[in-house]
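Sequence only, no structure available. Ideas?
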Amino acid sequence: MDEAASILPSKGSLTYTRSVTTACEHLHEPDWEHMDGPVLIAGDVHDLSAIAEVCRRLPWNAMGTVILEAAARVQIRHVDVPEGVSVRWLMRGDGTQARARGERLGISVHAWCVEWACAEPETDWTVWLGPHTPPRVAQMARSLLGVSAPPQA
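Reply:
I predicted one. Tokens follow.
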């Protein structure tokens, strides 16, 4: 599969939310300043500037996780986040130990989705996936979260 085919559709990032009992995909960015519940912000190192902008807009009391996947440690950069948000960098590695692009990101997104989609009592959450997130990761998240398709424009 070529690189262009492994990037999300041209609309850019994907945002999924759950409010009360409905989970859905949004065509537009959520109101980050007034969100409730935990947040997952995930993507490839190529999404770093977009992720930094989303983090800048989070409310001071936000809680959640930022996950970034990179090929090498030299790509790691500081990301400013509220105190309740952690930042995790995942390295693909190199040589015989190298992981496929999106593999470690997919595993981490899967774990977060399982934890929060199955939370008791049910809670609101927001998942934002960067435009360079492999489509298989976005499809897996959509499935685990029980997200319906976005409304037609």
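The longest strand covers residues 63-70.
Hope that gets you unstuck.
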